[in-house]
Amino acid sequence: MTETRFWLIRHAIVEENARTIIYGTMDVELCPHSLTAQAPMYAALARRLPRPATWLASPLTRTQRTAAAIFRAGYPEQTLTIEPGLIELAFGEWQGLMHSALPERLTLPPHAFWPLGGNERPPGGESMADGIRRLGTVMERLADTHAGRDVVAVSHGGAIRAAVAHALRIGADNALHLSIENISLTRIDRTPRGWRVACVNELPGV
Length: 206
Fold this sequence. Notes:
This protein has helices at 32-37, 39-48, 61-72, 128-145, 157-168, 172-175, and strands spanning 4-10, 54-57, 80-82, 150-155, 185-191, 194-202. The chain is α/β, with parallel strands linked by helices. The protein has a single domain, classed as Phosphoglycerate mutase-like (Rossmann fold, 3-Layer(aba) Sandwich), CATH 3.40.50.1240. Strand 5 and strand 6 (194-202) form a beta hairpin. Helix 2 packs across helix 3 and helix 4 (128-145) packs across helix 5 (157-168). The protein is globular, with a radius of gyration of 16 Å. The relative contact order is 0.23.
């Protein structure tokens, strides 16, 4: 088994109205003001990422537009392959609700750093525990498919937490203590000895 390096980027911040609701796998727009204001961070990220690399993004347009912003900032434009497995955790029937409407629907105590506890599964959606199992399978498959390469994957906060949890072999509630900010970089490698975490939530240019 050869070493495969995953450079995981959380998408840019979404527009203001979307931030008032639980959007999960809804296809919401990015905030145009943040894209402009954070241009130096995109340039720093473009310099930081490996060349050459295979580029992946989730099916949601906010990840694809984030990748496009990195290309505009100086990274040579690449073919972007859509990887369905990198999609955000789904909130099922709770998607579209205002954040204030969520507590009365919970069956388990919320987490200090996430709207739900690690094992709370929304109707028709996924718990963080479900997400860790899903992303674990996805990351193992991608590591086999892209063995020995650098892979830049633009994804989502919940999905990246789940991927790191798989690498660290930690549970759902522990995974929710990880901070994954917008346009942050997290790198995990699959090596012949197993998974290794190189960095988490690295903010470009900071």
